[in-house]
Amino acid sequence: MTKTVLLAGASGLVGGKILEELGNNNVKIISLARNKLHFASDLEEIICDFNEIDALNSKIILDEVYIAIGKQLKLYELLYLRKSERSGLKKVDFDFIKSVALFAKKNGAKSIGIVSAIGANHKSRNTYLKIKGEIEKEIISLGFQKIVIARPSHLLGKRKYEKLLISIFEKITNVVGYLMIGPFSKFRNISASKVANSLVSKMNNDEDGIFFLDFDDFKKL
Fold first, then answer.
1. The overall pTM is greater than 0.85
2. Which of 44, 84, 115, 161 is the most buried (most CB within 10 A)?
């Protein structure tokens, strides 16, 4: 039987790769986004302001949901985010993600896959990692039968912003990555396509429960 899958974040780096992976499976894909995805004409889409997700009145029946949304941050903001910017990060990376998850659950979704970050911890002193940890904890509390949380480090792929700076950063960290062995290997750069492939593959197996994916899971593909 064909599954119906909701995808939030299809225009992003990992979200776009998830869309490609789902397109290779026999599933019905519904995109939840603020703007129409002009590159995918055969895609069913729900266009809405993410601030108003709670008010959405949709009669779709879902099996799964993938959430790959997050506030666009500059490299230095991953290390330190000014206090004036923190509420904006929490709105996108916590409030919006929770709202999408609740919308999907209300419409029947039993499984959820989300893209988080390596080092996510609700007790972290780093704002970015703390919020990532908080939303992981919140998603787990919602009672989905299956939860798959991908925790990549820096994602490799084509971006629309900071191209030069990120290119330099990646050249350096790709080399440094070879020195990261044992427990440090999970901090290596990883391609967005491998993260998406791993996430979709894990969601597609028949095992229920809570699963975390990191570099060792991504590199197998």
1. yes
2. 115
Query: How many other C-beta atoms lie within 10 A of the C-beta of residue 146?
Result: 19
Domain count, the chain: 1
Residue-wise pLDDT tens digits, 169-187: 656 666 556 556 666 567 6
Q: Whose structure tokens read 């941050």?
A: 73
| Cα-based distances in Å from 205 to 125, 147, 181, 200 | 35, 12, 29, 9
CATH number of the domain enclosing 56: 3.40.50.720
- Tokens 């491998």 locate to 194
Domain holding 81, by residue range, is 3-218
Instruction: Give pLDDT tens digits for 91-139.
Output: 999 999 999 999 999 999 999 999 999 999 999 999 999 999 999 999 9
